Amino acid sequence: MAKNIAVVIQEDPRITHRPVEALRIALGLVAGSHNTTVILLGEAVRLLTDDTDDIIDLDILEKYLPSIEQLEIPFILPKVFDLSALSSEFCVRCESEDVVAALIQSMDCALVF
């Protein structure tokens, strides 16, 4: 049975490999037919921008981004984020902190990185 899963990424991809790994996990969850939403907080929003030079495991990120875009995995970003900074046509919406918190609470499972 498909579950509603939130993958919350809050770590800086310039400091650790975990944000890129979290996207890979989210891609696998979608392929397994789970309803998966990725929430990017803080510096993790860099995963979807053109400013990727300092990202750890950039080669892996570049490998998975086309599949993430094609599968239309939904991303939620902080309301203060400028959507014009995104590098492609991802399925993105901006929400307030309260909406993000309510969304995470409504999920069957939340993976936090």
Put the structure in a nutshell.
The chain is α/β, with parallel strands linked by helices.
Strand content: 15-25%
Largest sheet: 5 strands, parallel
Specify Rg, calculated over alpha carbons.
Answer: 13 Å
Helix content: 25-40%
Structure, explained:
It is a single chain. The protein has a single domain (4-105), classed as DsrEFH-like (Hypothetical Protein Ychn, Chain: A, 3-Layer(aba) Sandwich). Helix content is 33%, strand content 23%. It is built from three helices and five strands. It has a five-stranded parallel sheet with strand order 4-3-2-1-5, with helices on both faces. β2 (35-40), α2 (58-70) and β3 form a beta-alpha-beta unit. The longest helix has 14 residues, at 18-31. The two termini are 24 Å apart.
Characteristic terms for this protein:
33% helix; 113 residues; globular; 5 strands; five-stranded parallel beta sheet; alpha/beta; single chain; Hypothetical Protein Ychn, Chain: A
What is the secondary structure topology, with strand pairs?
Elements: E1 4-9, H1 18-31, E2 35-40, H2 58-70, E3 74-78, E4 91-95, H3 97-106, E5 109-112
Parallel strand pairs: 1-2, 1-5, 2-3, 3-4
Helix pairs in contact: 1-2
